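User: Fold both of these, please.

Assistant: Here is the first one.
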Amino acid sequence: MQCRKFSKQECHDLLVKRMAHYDQGNEACVKNWSTLPVETRGAFNSFSYNVGNGAFCGSTAARYLRSGNIAAACNAMLSWNKGTVKGKKVKLPGLTKRRVVERNICLRGAA
């Protein structure tokens, strides 16, 4: 396959389409999804984009969302900051930063 350059608009359109996929997946496992604040949904769509809908749907965060405890759900994202390095689970600084940003956006909706 030949290398191809994408315009900013094409990249934006692809991202919007991909995020819609994660939004639909999250809605399928959190029945009250459409009633959640937009900030909360956005943060968890970003989270699912990174970990996958299956991991999100089986997570403690999703369980908290289903029970209506948004703040606990937002905080539960923070534990998803590890990766495997040389066969061992370790905290990754970049992933820790990402989770803090996602949590902070998420909590704006819980206020």
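And the second sequence with its predicted structure:
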Amino acid sequence: MDLALAPETLARWQFGITTVYHFLFVPLTISLAALTAGLQTAWVRTEKEKY
């Protein structure tokens, strides 16, 4: 059997890609939500256009 197309190898690749996706995009999403909330709060409190 060709090792490159073995089900175990494909499953490991899938797990690796999923792990990298979560490692990168979950913290990015959380930090962007916190940044947006902080800027919205600053805008409401100060009523300045720059926020």
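The helical segments are 7-46.
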